[in-house]
Design the sequence.
C-alpha cells in the first residue's frame, strides 16, 4: 500500500493533467452530485437594497387619440392616461383643447411645452407646479380645486373659472391672467417672485389683487376692459358671466349695455350662440361674441367689409349669403345673412365655429315651431366625426316673435364611446312683468341639475331695477337667503345685497351707467360717468356702445 505522501503526489499530478482545464465543468458536476438540503435545512437569506424614492408617473400628451378627453389613452405617448398623483406634459399642437372627463382627478405637476392649450371639463386638483414654457399659453376654464398653486416658466397662464378654490397663488415666473373678479377668489394670497409678472390695468380701483387682459385701445368695440367690480371701463355698464353647468366655463353673459339679446335668454346672452346684427338695415354689421364683446364692420359697395375703430378681426361674405368672421387667433365663425323675415331668428344666426386646432361647434337643428331658434348644438373634436358633447335646447311657448321665444331648458349630453348620455341640465324661469322685480322676459333664475337632469344642485337668482340688473345671487347665496329670509318674492332688494355676489345701482335717469357696485355683499365701489361730448349718439349713449345694437 502506497504511503500517504506518495498517494497525494500521484493525485496532484493526475489533477493537474486531467482536471484543471475543466474546473467549472467538474465543479458543476460535483455540485450536482451533492445531496440536496431539505427546505427545513435551508437558511433564509435576505439582501438589502439601496433606498429608492417612489416617483409618480408622467404622461406626455401628443393629442393622437380619437377624442380630446383626458382619459383617452391614445392621446399619450405610450398609450397610458394619467391618474391621481401623476404628472402631465402637454406637448405638440394636436388637440390643444383638452376635456377633463375624469371626475375627482388630482395631478402632481403640469407642464405646457408648446402652442396654446385650453383645459376644460371637470374640476381639477393640482398639488405640484404649473409650468408654462416660452411662447406657450395655457388656459384653465375648468375649476382648480386645490388651495395652493405655483406657476413657473416664462409663458402665460390664464384662469377663467369663478369656482376656483385657490387661497394661495405663487407666481415665480411668467404672466398670470385672471379673467374675472372671482377667478382668483377674494382674499386669495398672491406671492410674486418677479416684481412685474402681471398684466395690471393701471386704473383698476382698489380691491382684490388680480390681473385682467390688457385694455383694448378702442373701448367702444371688441372686448371691453372690466373693473374689479364687474363694471366696464369707458361705458360704466354692469357686466357678468355665469356657469350654468358647473364645469368651470361661462355659459352666458350679461351687460346693461345690451338691453335685448337674441337666442331666447331674455337680457342675457348664451356663450354658445354669438350672432351678427345689422342695426336698422344699415350698411353696418356688428358681430357680438358676448355681452361684452362686439366687433363693428362697414359694408362696402363691392360687398366687402371694412373694420371700424382699427380692430384686427375680419368679416367676409361666405357661400349662400353667409358671413364669415375671423378673430386674431384664427378662430372662424359663420353666421347667416339677413334675408329672412322680420320675426325669423335665422337673421344673423350663428351657424358654426372652428378653433385653430380644428375643434368645432355646429348648429345641428333648428326649432321650426319657435321662429327657427337653435335647438341642437354639436361639439366635435378635431379629426373626429362624432360629437363628444351635444346641447339640446327646449323653448317655452311664445307669441310667434323671436324675442318672446324664451329658452326653457338646456340639456347637456356626453358621448360615452357608444352613445350620447344625459349629463347635466339647466332650467330657466323668467319674470312675467307683474312685479317691479323684473320686466316681462327678464331672466329670474337658472336651476342646475346633475344625474342626467334628475337631481337639483343649485339655483342662481336675479333681480332688476329700471330694466337693469340689480342683484345676482349664486346658488350658495340663494340658498342662504332663502334659509334666513324665507321665500324671496316679498323680500326687498336691499335685503338681498349681503347674500349677492354682485349688486349694482345706476345713475338717474337710468341709462345703464353704474354708480355703485357691491362685490360679495362686502366690498363697495363708487363710479362716476363723464361722457365724451364729441362722441354722443342721438340716444345719449356713446356711439359704438353695444346698447346701440
Sequence:
Amino acid at each position: 500500500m502506497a504511503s500517504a505522501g506518495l498517494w497525494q503526489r500521484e493525485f496532484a499530478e493526475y489533477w493537474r493533467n486531467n482536471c484543471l482545464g475543466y474546473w467549472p465543468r467538474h465543479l458543476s458536476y460535483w455540485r450536482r452530485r451533492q445531496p440536496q438540503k431539505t427546505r427545513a435545512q435551508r437558511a433564509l437569506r435576505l439582501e438589502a437594497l439601496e433606498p429608492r424614492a417612489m416617483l409618480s408617473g408622467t404622461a406626455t400628451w401628443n393629442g393622437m387619440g380619437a377624442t380630446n378627453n383626458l382619459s383617452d389613452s391614445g392621446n399619450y405617448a405610450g398609450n397610458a392616461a394619467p391618474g391621481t398623483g401623476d404628472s402631465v406634459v402637454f406637448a405638440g399642437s394636436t388637440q390643444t383643447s383638452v376635456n377633463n372627463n375624469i371626475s375627482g382627478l388630482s395631478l402632481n405637476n403640469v407642464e405646457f411645452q408648446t402652442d396654446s392649450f385650453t383645459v376644460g371639463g371637470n374640476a381639477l386638483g393640482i398639488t405640484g407646479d404649473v409650468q408654462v414654457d416660452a411662447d406657450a399659453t395655457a388656459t384653465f376654464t375648468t375649476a382648480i380645486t386645490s388651495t395652493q398653486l405655483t406657476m413657473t416658466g416664462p409663458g402665460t397662464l390664464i384662469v377663467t373659472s369663478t369656482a376656483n378654490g385657490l387661497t394661495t397663488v405663487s407666481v415665480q415666473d411668467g404672466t398670470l391672467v385672471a379673467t374675472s373678479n372671482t377667478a382668483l377668489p377674494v382674499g386669495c394670497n398672491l406671492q410674486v417672485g418677479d416684481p412685474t409678472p402681471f398684466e395690471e390695468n393701471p386704473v383698476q380701483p382698489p380691491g382684490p389683487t388680480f390681473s385682467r387682459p390688457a385694455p383694448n385701445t378702442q373701448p367702444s368695440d371688441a372686448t371691453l376692459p372690466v373693473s374689479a367690480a364687474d363694471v366696464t371701463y369707458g361705458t360704466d355698464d354692469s357686466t357678468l358671466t355665469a356657469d350654468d353647468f358647473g364645469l368651470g366655463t361661462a355659459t352666458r353673459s350679461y351687460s346693461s349695455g345690451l338691453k335685448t339679446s337674441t337666442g331666447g335668454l331674455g337680457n342675457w346672452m348664451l356663450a354658445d350662440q354669438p350672432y351678427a346684427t345689422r342695426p336698422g338695415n344699415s350698411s353696418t354689421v356688428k358681430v357680438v361674441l358676448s355681452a361684452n364683446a362686439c366687433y363693428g364692420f362697414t359694408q362696402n359697395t363691392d360687398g366687402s367689409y371694412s373694420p371700424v375703430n382699427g380692430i384686427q378681426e375680419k368679416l367676409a361674405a361666405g357661400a349662400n349669403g353667409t358671413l364669415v368672421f375671423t378673430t386674431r387667433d384664427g378662430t372662424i365663425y359663420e353666421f347667416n345673412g339677413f334675408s329672412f323675415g322680420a320675426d325669423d331668428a335665422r337673421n344673423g344666426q350663428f351657424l358654426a365655429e372652428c378653433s385653430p386646432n380644428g375643434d368645432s361647434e355646429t348648429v345641428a337643428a333648428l326649432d321650426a315651431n319657435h321662429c327657427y331658434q337653435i335647438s341642437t348644438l354639436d361639439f366635435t373634436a378635431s379629426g373626429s366625426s362624432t360629437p363628444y358633447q351635444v346641447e339640446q335646447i327646449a323653448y317655452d311657448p311664445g307669441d310667434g316673435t323671436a324675442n318672446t321665444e324664451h329658452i326653457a331648458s338646456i340639456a347637456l349630453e356626453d358621448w360615452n364611446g357608444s352613445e350620447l348620455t344625459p349629463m347635466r341640465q339647466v332650467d330657466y324661469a323668467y319674470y312675467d312683468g307683474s312685479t317691479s322685480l323684473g320686466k316681462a322676459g327678464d331672466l329670474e333664475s337658472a336651476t342646475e341639475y346633475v344625474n342626467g337632469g334628475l337631481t337639483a344642485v343649485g339655483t342662481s337668482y336675479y333681480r332688476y331695477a329700471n330694466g337693469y340688473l340689480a342683484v345676482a345671487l349664486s346658488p350658495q347665496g340663494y340658498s342662504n337667503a332663502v334659509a334666513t329670509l324665507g321665500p324671496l318674492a316679498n323680500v326687498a332688494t336691499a335685503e338681498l345685497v349681503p347674500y349677492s355676489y354682485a349688486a349694482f345701482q345706476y345713475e338717474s335717469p337710468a341709462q345703464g351707467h353704474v354708480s355703485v357696485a357691491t362685490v360679495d355683499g362686502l366690498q363697495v365701489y363708487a363710479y362716476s360717468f363723464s361722457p365724451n361730448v364729441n362722441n354722443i349718439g342721438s340716444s345719449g349713449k356713446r356711439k359704438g356702445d353695444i346698447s346701440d345694437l
In short: The chain has two domains: 58-192, 222-548. The two ends are 128 Å apart (CA to CA). The helical segments are 4-18, 23-33, 475-485, 493-496.
